[in-house]
Amino acid sequence: KNGTSSYLQMIVPRLILMRELLSEQGSIYVHIDWHVGHYVKVIMDELFGKENFVNEIVWRRTFAHGDVGQGAKHLGRLHDVILVYGKNPDYILNLIYKPYEKEYIEKHFTHIDDKTGRKFQSVSLTAPGGAAKGNPYYEFLGVKRFWQYSKENMQKLLKEGKIFQSSSGNVPRKKMFLDESPGVPLQDIWMDISPVQGQAKENRDYGTQKPEKLMERIISLSTNPDSIIADFFSGSGTTGAVAEKLGRK
Q: Is 156 helix (H, G, I), strand (E, B) or coil?
């Protein structure tokens, strides 16, 4: 009843209990909006430790709308925030990759391997930081540099046909083949998951219902099969349904 103050009085003791229940490999995701996001961030830093902060995920939860046309004096508010903390540095994180877009492939994978016909892009083999970071220095294909790999591993890459040298004397680079590239690592801005629409099959007419795709991503990122998932604000039951589909408890 007292706005932000009441909310914080409600959430703090619950967050304390959640931390106690969290596995040593566990992560906690707290979904909030612009009203209280900055307050909860400070509280989470205190309870879980700044060093255990993982990400502030920006989720576009709605589409463009005309608040200004209705007299609102602010920019359209389209996103919510999901704060992610680990119990400690050993939290589970299963990286997710998204497929490259066609434009990215056309721009970056511009080379064709002579022997196999596979598309590739060339990436640097040199080592920024040089000796200060313990990188080896030697001559390879007529070029002396600090390299990312040992001489033995560079010879192995050369034998496997994974070294690209545009012409004699130029700095060799590594061939990154398109068919061996997992894609773009997931970033902290999520614009590809739409909110639950009124006509959607999964809609349960719950005011803050999360899309199944959102929960699939979160659960896949931070848990393994047979991990235990806890949703302390059960809502529409989406978390439980998705956890079961993914083989979690």
A: helix
H-helix or E-strand containing 245?
helix 238-245
CA distances from 111 to 58, 168, 212 (A): 35, 17, 39
Give the closest residue to 230 by CA, choosing from 209, 33, 218, 57: 218
CA distance 229 to 187: 23
Beta bridge partners of 163: 174
Question: Residue 14 in contact with residue 40, Cβ under 8 Å?
Answer: no
pLDDT digits (tens, 9 = 90+) for 5-58: 999 999 999 999 999 999 999 999 999 998 899 999 999 999 999 999 999 999
Contacts of 77 (CB under 8 A, 6+ apart): 33, 34, 67
Could you tell me if residue 183 is left (phi over 0), alpha (psi between -120 and 50 degrees) or otherwise beta? left
For 157, phi then psi, to 5°, come to -60, -40
Q: Model confidence over 61-74: pLDDT tens digits?
A: 887 665 666 677 88
Q: Are the CB atoms for 30 and 83 separated by under 8 Å?
A: yes
Amino acid 66: pLDDT: 59
SS3 215: helix
96 within 8 A of 220, measured Cβ to Cβ: yes
Radius of gyration of the chain (CA): 24
